[in-house]
C-alpha cells in the first residue's frame, strides 16, 4: 500500500504545479510555497512539445493549452529593413522545428497548471523556505514569513538560482555557461507586429527578437554574447542602462524596443547557462525541473524536462513506499533524457548570432537551403529539440 505523504514543494512555475497535481492525484497532502507575493503573469514564450505534450495530454490539459497559445505561426529572419532572409513555419523539420505547435507564455501555462489542481493543493504565495532540518522521520521547515512545519518530503522546483538547492546541496551545483546574456520583457504591440517571430542579427553577436502573444502585447528579446559578468545581479535601472548601451546603435525595431524598456515592469535579465548536479536528492529532499537540470532556453527542452520530471517523480513516489528508492528510480529514468537535452554545444550562440556581417549572411544562406538534404541534416541538429526522446512510464495509480 502506497504511503500517503505530506509533501512541500517550493516554486510555482511549471515543474512545481505539475508535480503538485500528480501528487494530489495520489492523495498526497501537498503544499506549494512561492516566493513571489502573487501569481506572476506573462513571462517569455515557451513551448509544450514531445514528451511534455504527452504529460499535458495525460493531465487533460492539451485543449486548454491550445486555447491559450500565442498563435505564433512561424519564424522569420530579417535584416535591418525588415526584409525576409529566411523563414520557417510550424511544419518545418517534420513539425519539430524552432516554432512548436503549442507556443504559450510561461505565466499562461503556470496559471493553467495551478488552476487544474488548486482544489486539492495548498498554494502559499509570498513565502519561501528560510531553513531546513532533516529529522529521522521528516524534514522540519522554517518559513521566511514565520512559522515551522514538518513534512515527510521537500521538493525544490525553483529556477536556475534555486535558494532551496543552495540550502541543501551547497556548492554541488555546476553552471555550464554559454557566455550569453538574454533579456525578456513586454512592449506595446505595434501595427507591424505579426503572428511570426521576427529575428534580427547584428554584428558583434547581437540579436533582437519580437514575438507575438495572446494578450494584445508583444514580447521582446535582446541577446548579447559575453562571459559571465554578474550583470544579472545589477539593480533593474542599471540593467536597463546596460541594455541601452549594448543595443543603442542598432537599427530595425531596436529603437522602439529600447524606448519601451523604460516602462517595462517585467524585465527578466540573466546569463544563459545549464545546471548540472551529480545527484538530485539528498535524504528526504529532492530537486526537479530547472533547479536540478536546467538545459537552458537555447535547448528548447526546458518545459518538457520540467513537466516530464515532475510526472516521473510523482509516479515513482506513488510506486515506492521508500522515498530513497523512489528518488533513485526517478533519476535513473530521467538522467538519459536530461543528458541528451543538455548536449547543446557551447558554440551554439555563435552559430545563432554570428559576429560578422559575412557570418550573418552565410547563416541566412544556410537557413534558406534547409531543403537540401545535407544542409537539413546539419540544421536539424541545432533546430530540432529531442523532446520526445524518453519513453514515459504509465503509472496505473495516476491514470
Describe the 3D structure.
The protein is of the alpha/beta class and 399 residues long. The protein is built from 13 helices and 18 strands. It has helices at residues 15-25, 50-59, 62-67, 106-117, 163-169, 236-247, 254-261, 290-293, 302-319, 323-341, 348-352, 357-368, 373-383, and strands spanning 6-10, 29-34, 45-47, 74-78, 84-89, 103-105, 121-125, 129-135, 138-143, 148-151, 153-156, 174-188, 196-202, 206-212, 217-225, 268-276, 281-282, 285-287. Strands 5-4-13-14-15-12-16 form a seven-stranded mixed β-sheet, with helices on both faces. A hairpin with a 5-residue loop joins strand 4 (74-78) and strand 5 (84-89). Helix 1 runs parallel beside helix 4, helix 1 (15-25) runs parallel beside helix 9 and helix 9 packs antiparallel against helix 10 (323-341). The radius of gyration is 21 Å and the shape is globular.
Tell me what portion of residues adopts beta-strand conformation.
25-35%
Radius of gyration: 21 Å
State mean pLDDT (0 to 100 scale). Answer: 94
Shape label: globular
Helix content: 25-40%
Low-confidence stretches: none
The end-to-end span amounts to 17 Å
Number of helices: 13
> Which secondary-structure class do the elements indicate?
alpha/beta
DSSP strand tally: 18
**How is the biggest beta sheet arranged?**
7 strands, mixed
As laid out across the biggest beta sheet, the strand order is 5-4-13-14-15-12-16
Summarize the structure in short.
The chain contains 13 helices and 18 strands. It has 399 residues and is α/β, with parallel strands linked by helices. The longest helix has 19 residues.
